[in-house]
Specification:
The complex is a heterodimer of chains A (514) and B (446).
Chain A (H helix, E strand, L loop, with lengths): L35 H4 L35 H12 L22 H7 L2 H4 L11 H18 L3 E3 L5 H18 L6 E5 L5 H8 L3 E5 L9 H7 L4 E7 L11 H10 L3 E5 L19 E3 L20 E3 L11 E5 L2 E5 L18 H37 L15 E3 L11 H10 L6 E2 L9 E3 L7 H19 L4 H4 L12 H6 L8 H4 L1
Parallel strand pairs in A: 2-3, 2-4, 4-5, 5-6
Antiparallel strand pairs in A: 1-7, 6-7, 8-9, 10-12, 11-12
Helix pairs in contact in A: 3-10, 5-10, 6-7, 10-12
Chain B lengths: L7 H11 L4 H4 L21 H12 L23 H7 L2 H4 L11 H18 L3 E2 L6 H16 L3 E4 L5 H14 L2 E4 L9 H5 L4 E7 L11 H9 L3 E6 L18 E5 L15 E5 L11 E6 L5 E6 L5 H4 L12 H38 L5 E2 L7 E5 L4 H10 L6 E2 H4 L8 E5 L6 H14 L1
Parallel strand pairs in B: 2-3, 2-4, 4-5, 5-6
Antiparallel strand pairs in B: 1-7, 6-7, 8-9, 10-11, 11-13, 12-13
Helix pairs in contact in B: 4-12, 6-12, 7-8, 12-15
The chains are: A alpha/beta (514), B alpha/beta (446).
């Protein structure tokens, strides 16, 4: 049956004046959605379970008496609640997500499918190893790919994210120095380092010292040489660095570091720029973590889970954490206690992020060695294209080609009254996720744009057009557009100061009455 | 290659705009000596059919839990996950979004995290919870670091019932932080022994309930003793479903709860990814690790949520941060929250009751086998049994018969001298036929 349209005008009347607010808080497809605690019933559930015949009398006074305070919903209500919430998120599947240093690339759905095969998802970490030969083989295969791509002889798979990878690397470095009775106290990081680098070094008990950078955005060799010394345990470096530039003097940096008896730790967050093109081993790296959720496309999931395997050179490999896969007489098995090794110990329970290993390996097998080199090529090409399209209007602190991310500063906004933050929020109104802002810290008002290789040219053009249109607006005094932005997001600009001043970290029942 | 959208024409047009002769020219800063000459020594790209076939053949070499009777636990539990949980977490908006640094376009993730924090706080009986840790063991290790910061004392006392992997993860961090770790001998029911070890140097005691042997105990006296000595009590829970039946650690006086949330909403996944639950008292929140989501308002006064108190965190505080954690377990936390919302209080209590009832049946069946002893005075859904021979060989023999007969304690701690102890878990997925099959097979193997 077709809709009867006679007498039902489908064209809106011309609206005079401002758009009226809705009466309910909903806005078209965007629903105003309460918290589960305001929706759910204390007697409702979306799971049918029969009360067991046996009671819990044997537990005596251990049994809960008071209510827990957990509301429940039926299945349809649950779906609706979380689908409504989902529609308030930006996502890589929706539009460009150009967060520099975060590598927001396409997440292939094949990887989700295979990770859910019962043979991977429904196996227990402590089953007899004879019953999980396929899982151990998968770990071996993943290790082979990571070692081949980095040129490193060993890899520790367990770390659960990049920061835990850094921890793993520095723990091995500390163990290696301690094994020689060498109690080195300092770790050097460039001023442009990710915050996790100094945080990790401090966590491992090191004093952190910054190495300056040159006017062209790279490690200052003279400053490095001056700060290296017999008490420096390691230099932590990111290459390509967080300014999106390759450290041209990397071989000299490695030579100086090693000459001082220190190890060279590489933060592999930016490996996407060089995968299949450059092997970190050939750059003199002793250890490097690889964020599987960046370069190898396991989904970011709104903040994890990630995975951060660490590749090691021969000097550090003996200190790697348990467990690792071992070839035994009856197939593959696991060394879970470090028997006969100098392992620094265990980072976490069980064997690491198997679910992420499956996805990462599926990604690697799909691309192959040839496809991964193309990943780096296209990622670098896309970033340089953005840099080229925007360079006449936005100011870039550094010339020359960039690697996988294009860095701009805020000099071009001088005198407009618009800040980097305002600009980013206005970009939200245009349908894009903002770039990374105010990082790296070495550049004033930094805007760091990483498109990744999975963006089509048309989407990049659409993004550049939006940035250029906004830039024109900023320069012609259309400041209102920026100061109040975003206007069209699910919420307007949020008061982060209030949140920090009066922390409210959970729902409390008295809200219901308010 | 199906994931790479650029065409050769695109690449040429883009190079022209850049003014570079080739993509290689963009890599000019890389020293020639460090560039890979020629193709990488790895197989070439493959289609979806080939990759799926290859991975399915690896998966087929594993014996999955659903293929037969299954009793493994020891920190990872096989529970039913409603189909809608997995459906929702695969929505693009949740799966393919980043950490919610731009709150105006991340309210979906942020509101779910706020719900997660509230659910975790309620479940553990604590005042505040963070937005997740990697897993229970790293949550426990971070809890020890936090107790060290709060009390400025140098010693941590680990109960003999603490999961050995958790003890090992704690020791790794404690070693480099200069915290002395005193681990008591592995014991099925000796939580209260930590009390005698308390002294003026003690930052915290770490006790687990139900412990790694499955024994459930009241921690109230331990908390009181710890507080009297000026120390904190960290309660570890590896089976979150137990909190549906057993009094919460908060009720028992815990200062920090470090728990594994895998049981709710998350599959076994051979050990990861899981989701660490971290909850504490409000007065300690500024010493807590990890992300926190808080409520605020937008420019129009509407309620919204943001990441907050980030001056504790690495991206702001750098070397002075409370932890180096950045990415955590966002999507696993979402799965937890959705499953918990489906269960509600009613469902969770029933689920916990069923788990406990199945374990009681399992315990009865084990106790009926000659020369097998159930060791726990009280348990939730997991028991420890003593066998007349080493458990590892028995488990291997039963695996060959298609029964995954739990975890030999020696697998977790080969030095404890408990080679004859076997850990067996039951959940709502354990059937009476499974228990009967295990009983028969065990009798045959002993």
């Amino acid at each position: 049956m077709t809709m009867q349209t006679i007498g039902r005008p489908t064209r809106a009347e011309a609206i005079v004046g401002s758009v009226p607010a809705t009466l309910t808080g909903g806005r078209g497809l965007l629903q105003d959605e309460p918290l589960i605690f305001e929706l759910g019933g204390w007697s409702k559930t979306g799971v049918d379970i029969d009360e067991p015949a046996l009671d819990a009398g044997d537990l005596g006074d251990l049994v809960r008496a008071a209510p827990i305070g957990l509301p429940g919903l039926s299945e349809p209500e649950t779906l609706r609640h979380y689908v409504r919430l989902s529609q308030k998120n930006h996502a890589i599947d929706l539009a460009l997500y150009p967060l520099g240093s975060c590598t927001m690339k396409h997440n292939p759905r094949l990887n989700e499918k295979v990770a859910r095969l019962p043979g991977f998802a429904d196996i227990h970490p402590l089953q007899p190893t004879s019953t999980v030969q396929g899982a151990l083989q998968l770990m071996e295969t993943l290790a082979h790919w990571l070692k081949t791509l980095t040129g490193m002889p060993a890899v520790a798979l367990p770390p659960k994210a990049g920061a835990q990878g850094e921890l793993c690397g520095l723990l091995a470095i500390r163990a290696a120095h301690e094994a020689r009775g060498d109690g080195r106290k300092r770790v050097l990081t460039p001023t442009s380092a990710h915050g996790t680098n100094p945080a990790t070094a401090a966590f491992v008990g090191y004093a952190v010292e910054e190495v300056g950078q040159t006017a062209c955005g790279r490690v200052d060799l003279a400053d490095l040489a001056a700060k290296l010394g017999p008490d420096v345990a390691a230099l932590m470096i990111t290459n390509p660095n967080t300014c999106g530039l390759f450290e041209r003097d990397m071989l000299e940096i490695a030579r100086l570091t090693h000459a001082a008896g220190a190890y060279l730790y590489a933060d592999g967050a930016n490996f996407n720029a060089i995968v299949g093109k450059v092997r970190p081993a050939d750059l003199g790296v002793d250890a490097m973590h690889i964020n599987l959720h960046k370069t190898f496309s396991t989904p970011h999931g709104g903040g994890g889970p990630g995975a951060g395997p660490v590749v090691f050179g021969a000097a550090l490999a003996p200190f790697a954490p348990v467990p690792w896969v071992v070839h035994g007489a009856d197939g593959l098995t696991l060394n879970e206690h470090g028997d006969g090794s100098q392992s620094f110990g265990r980072l976490s329970a069980f064997h690491g992020q198997m679910g992420m290993y499956v996805r990462a390996l599926a990604y690697m097998l799909s691309h192959g060695g040839d496809g991964l080199a193309q990943v780096a090529a296209d990622a670098v090409l896309n970033a340089n294209y953005i840099k080229a399209r925007l360079r006449g209007v936005l100011s870039a602190p550094f010339g020359r080609p960039c690697m996988h991310e294009a860095l701009f500063d805020d000099r071009w906004l001088d005198g407009t009254g618009v800040t980097t933050l305002d600009f980013a929020k206005a970009l939200i109104d245009e349908g894009f996720h903002p770039m990374t802002m105010y990082f790296p810290l070495v550049v004033h008002g930094a805007m760091l744009i990483e498109p990744t290789e999975t963006e089509p040219k048309a989407e990049i053009d659409r993004f550049c057009d939006a940035v250029l249109a906004l830039a024109a607006a900023a320069k012609t005094g259309d400041v209102e557009r920026f100061k109040g932005a975003p206007f069209h997001a699910p919420l307007r600009r949020l008061d982060e100061t209030l949140a920090a001043r009066k922390p409210k970290l959970r729902w409390t029942p008295d809200e219901a009455a308010a | 290659m199906r994931y790479l959208p650029l065409t050769e024409d695109d690449r040429a047009a883009m190079l022209a705009e850049i003014g570079a002769p080739s993509v290689d020219a963009l890599f000019a800063d890389v020293p020639k000596a460090a560039r890979i000459a020629g193709p990488v020594d790895l197989p070439p790209h493959q289609g979806e059919i080939e990759v799926e076939r290859q991975l399915a053949s690896l998966a087929a070499k594993n014996r999955s839990a659903g293929q037969g009777p299954f009793f493994c636990g020891a920190g990872a539990y096989r529970h039913h996950v409603p189909a809608s949980v997995d459906h929702i977490i695969q929505r693009s908006e949740f799966l393919t979004s980043y950490t919610p640094y731009q709150p105006e376009i991340a309210q979906g993730t942020l509101q779910a995290l706020f719900e997660f924090q509230t659910q975790v706080a309620a479940l553990t009986g604590m005042e505040v919870a963070n937005a997740s840790m990697y897993d229970g063991s790293t949550a426990a290790a971070e809890a020890v670091m936090m107790a060290h910061r709060v009390t400025r004392r140098p010693k941590a006392i680990l109960s003999g019932g603490l999961h050995p992997h958790y003890a090992a993860a704690i020791r790794t961090l404690a070693h480099v932080a200069g915290v002395e770790v005193v681990r008591q001998p592995a014991a099925v029911d000796a939580e209260a022994d930590v009390i005698a070890a308390l002294d003026a140097e003690t930052a915290c005691v770490i006790v687990q309930t139900p412990n790694v042997f499955g024994t459930a105990s009241d921690l109230t006296r331990i908390a009181e003793a710890a507080h009297a000595a000026g120390a904190l009590m960290i309660a570890v829970v590896t089976e979150a479903v137990s909190l549906g039946l057993i009094r919460s650690p908060g009720e028992m006086g815990a200062d920090i709860v470090a728990a594994e949330g895998q049981s709710i909403g998350n599959a076994l996944n051979f050990g990861g990814p899981y989701v660490g639950l971290f909850a504490t008292r409000e007065r300690f929140v500024r010493q807590a690790p990890g992300r926190l989501c808080g409520e605020t308002v937008d420019a129009d006064g509407r309620r919204g949520f943001v990441l907050t108190l980030s001056t504790r965190e690495q991206h702001i505080r750098r070397e002075k941060a409370t932890s180096n954690i950045c990415t955590n377990s966002g999507l696993c936390a979402l799965a937890f929250t959705i499953h918990m919302s489906l269960l509600g209080e009613v469902g969770l209590r029933k689920l916990a009751a069923v788990n406990h009832a199945q374990a009681r049946k399992l315990a009865s069946a084990m106790a009926a086998i000659p020369r097998v002893a159930v060791l726990n005075p009280r348990f939730f859904n997991e028991i420890a049994v003593r066998l007349p021979k080493p458990a590892t060989a028995v488990v291997e023999a039963l695996a060959a018969e298609g029964i995954l007969a739990g975890v030999p304690f020696a697998r977790l701690d080969p030095t404890a001298g408990l080679d004859d102890v076997l850990l067996l878990a039951a959940t709502e997925l354990t059937t009476e036929a499974d228990i009967a099959a295990l009983g028969r097979a065990l009798e045959g193997a002993l």
